[in-house]
Amino acid sequence: MTSPVLHAEGLTKRYGRRLALSDCTLSVPPGRVVGLVGPNGAGKTTLLQLAVGMLTPTAGTIRVVGGRPASGAAQLARVGFVAQDAPTYAGLSIKDHLRFAARTNRRWDQRMAEDRVAALGLDPGQRVGRLSGGQRAQIALTLAIAKCPELLVLDEPVAALDPMARREFLRALAAYTAENRTSVIHSSHLVSDLERVCDYLVVLVASRVRLAGDVGELLAGHHRLTGTRRDAADLPAGVQVVEANHTACQSTFVVRGDTPVNDPSLTVEPLSLEDLVLAYMSQAVTSSRPDLEATR
User: Fold this and answer.
1) Which of 215, 240, 255 marks a domain boundary?
2) What CATH number corresponds to the domain at position 43?
3) Which letter does DSSP use for residue 22 in this model?
4) Strand, coil or helix: what is 87?
5) Sheet holding 222-228, edge to edge
6) Is the model's pTM score more than 0.70?
7) Full residue range of the structural domain in which residue 281 is found
8) Same domain, 208 and 73
9) Domain boundary among 150, 184, 215
10) What CA–CA distances, in Å, run from 34 to 90, 218, 244?
């Protein structure tokens, strides 16, 4: 059996009385592009910083590509990380960044880095502080992937970019993952961006994992049911209600179930990825029902 690229059990991070991450149990298969979604303050950045070793757990365990995060030089070499602000050194040139990275990363691929800079149409002698936000994000991505990691961790690196810069960043990411089959965990609150590149989904709300699994399987297992107003208890057997909305005459449910719904009084519709994410996010804020727990 192939080992998970990230495996957490009971992972918890607390700052004083505040829980940033609570009892997170999650196993992510290798070779996938994972979309990590959730509202602001859900714990996404905390989970990713635990994964790359920038934070240590208050309780529980986490292993990434088979090892403890940041446990040594060999482990650090196996993980690439791009933070939300795409950190670079404003006073250094692009060439300086590549030279520094070559000296600090044992698996560095100089040819890959130079080819990416050339493809971006950038002058290697230009200072990074004079680049646009999108260009700096592309340089940060170049530094992360040219170290040839087994896992690439992206913490909302396109959140502050304009739509064109976001599209170019995601295009570069898709091309890289298709060619190299590197595992990726990509945090974002922009579900439309994740739809372009991700095949595995993790929904994190209020410091807890609410849903995790293959995108295709999750979409196939969820539907929207619409019909005359009724209680959830009156729905066909075998479905779990994720979200319910009612008007005076009509009820709409987002449900999960493995068996077809054959009730002529109900209209059954598929969900988009955004529909699915919003259903879990909105319901999980106010409910802790067992049917909202994550798929393990």
Assistant:
1) 215
2) 3.40.50.300
3) E
4) coil
5) 240-246, 250-256, 222-228, 267-270
6) yes
7) 221-289
8) yes
9) 215
10) 30, 13, 28
Judgement on whether residues 187 and 236 belong to the same structural domain of the protein: no
| Residue 213: CB atoms within 10 Å | 16
pLDDT digits (tens, 9 = 90+) for 192-246: 888 888 999 999 988 889 999 999 999 999 999 999 999 999 999 889 999 999 9
Q: Are residues 61 and 157 in the same domain?
A: yes
Q: Is residue 249 very low, low, confident or very high in pLDDT (cuts 50, 70, 90)?
A: very high
Distance CA 7, CA 25 (A): 8
Q: State the Cα–Cα distance between residues 289 and 256, nearest whole angstrom.
A: 14
Tell me, yes or no, whether 23 lies in a domain.
Answer: yes
Amino acid at residue number 12: T
Q: If we measure between CA atoms, which residue out of 34, 5, 6, 4 comes closest to residue 200?
A: 34
Cα–Cα dist 58/139, whole Å: 34
Which residues, including other chains, have CB under 8 Å from residue 290's CB and lie 6 or more apart?
A: none
Coil, helix or strand for 67? Answer: strand
Phi and psi at residue 200, to the nearest 5°:
-140, 140
